[in-house]
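Re: that chain you flagged

S.,

Sorry for the slow reply, it's been a week of failed gels. I finally had a moment to sit down with the sequence you sent. For the record, here it is as I used it:
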Amino acid sequence: MKNLHNEIMNIIQTAIDSPYQFGTNDCNIIVLRLIDLINGTTTLSDRQYTSVKEGIAGLNKEGWNHTGEIVEAYCKPVQHVIDGDIWLDPDNPLIMAVVVSGRVLGVTANHDGFELQPKPTKGTYYRVRKHIDG
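Prediction finished late last night. Pasting the structure tokens below so you have them in one place:
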């Protein structure tokens, strides 16, 4: 049996160790990989795009306006966070991060990789649940 926490940490470590790239290693893909992991699927993170515009077009074809809607559909808001919880920016639903070790995995200022950053105080934190419920 796999250890879920170890699998979450593997996703985070791979993100840190790899260059930032739209559709392969960006904040939206990392979050979708976590949702897929917990749900035992691969469909949400199986995307190909090279720009924000392409990514949004792909989401629109599936009936989503932005990745934040996917987070809201597959996750529940939480007050006390643990590793693997997801933070959504209150001003931009395309900006998100994953909680790890009391911080969040965020994009570097140069947008060329990931780094651990202080947890934002504004925005909403979510925890993945294993199914969508209306």
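What I noticed first: The CA atoms of residues 76 and 125 lie 8 Å apart.

Talk soon,
D.
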